[in-house]
Write a structure and sequence with these properties.
signal; 13 helices; TraB family protein; alpha/beta; hydrolase; 289 residues; metal-binding; transmembrane helix; two-stranded antiparallel sheet
């Protein structure tokens, strides 16, 4: 992989679809979980991440790094070290059909006005996909310049590569984008863009909760119905979690694995933790390591 800076920007784009539902009140406060039992000869780990934050708020706790050191394979949602996946990701943020051609004149005028709050306009974004539009939300909500942004998975990836660990992904770019398209059509994205300041306030609260490993508060914040309805939850979380939970056992049987996925995927009735437990694994929070 030649350029981690470019890679980081790709992660930023693909990570802007923030979504989740609340976990029950008895969950342990930990962003790191150990997976064992069910025939595994050595434990694997899954870490709930917060994709992007300002450097002043950024911290990877020692237990996360220790768990990564103990495993043989680093697994992200998408394998960003795969050149083919990177090419596919870049293509997904352009569209053959202009945004303005998908809207009425009145809707196009409204979008142009909304985009002014994000420092751009419809003319500049007209050849972009709705996913590229959505990426503006996260970038604007962060209270720091882009060159001061830290990306959780990229920092973990750097350490995994230094240790020459195998790097894998739980899904392909095409699969992720299919899920995103099911959840958020252009008009849904425009409605999200209109939230503006609400996202900034929400993101700040989420960062505070994440730093404390207060998963209950974090997922309660994610539960806001303005961010996700039932259809969007199914596409962005439930269906993907089930697919991942089918792939993870084989990965863990072959070699101990460290899975890094955004925290929204861990919790809830259809969260990865509960799905793995249903398969017979022991999945427990790691408070220290």
């Amino acid at each position: 992989m030649k350029n981690l800076v470019q890679l980081g920007f790709a992660v930023l784009l693909s990570a802007t679809f923030m979504s989740a539902k609340a976990q029950n009140a008895n969950a342990e406060n930990s962003t790191l979980w150990e997976i064992s039992g069910n025939g595994l000869t050595q434990p694997s780990y899954i870490a709930g991440t917060f994709h992007v934050m300002c450097s002043k708020d950024f911290e990877i706790k020692p237990k996360i790094m220790k768990a990564l050191e103990k495993t043989d394979q680093f697994v992200m949602e998408i394998n960003y070290t795969d050149p083919a996946e990177m090419t596919a990701l870049q293509k997904m943020y352009q569209t053959d059909k202009k945004l303005s051609d998908q809207l009425t004149p009145a809707e196009a005028k409204e979008l142009d006005k909304v985009l002014a709050d994000y420092g751009t306009d419809l003319k500049k974004m007209d050849n972009s996909s709705s996913q590229a539009l959505y990426a503006l939300i996260s970038m604007k909500a962060l209270p720091c310049p882009q060159n001061d942004i830290k990306m959780y998975e990229i920092e973990l990836l750097k350490n995994a590569m230094k240790s020459k660990k195998k790097v894998s992904g739980l899904e392909k770019v095409e699969e992720q984008m299919t899920s995103i398209n099911k959840a958020y059509d252009l008009k849904a994205v425009i409605n999200q863009l209109k939230m503006g300041k609400e996202y900034e306030i929400l993101l700040n609260k989420m960062v505070t909760a994440f730093k404390k490993e207060d998963v209950q508060s974090l997922y309660t914040l994610f539960k806001d119905d303005k961010i996700m309805n039932a259809k969007q939850e199914k596409a962005m979380l439930t269906d993907r979690n089930k697919n991942w939970a089918e792939k993870m056992p084989e990965m863990m049987r072959k070699e101990s694995s460290f899975f890094a996925v955004r925290g929204a995927h861990l919790m809830g009735d259809n969260g990865v933790i509960r799905l793995l437990k249903a398969k017979g694994y022991t999945v427990k929070p790691v408070l220290s390591l």
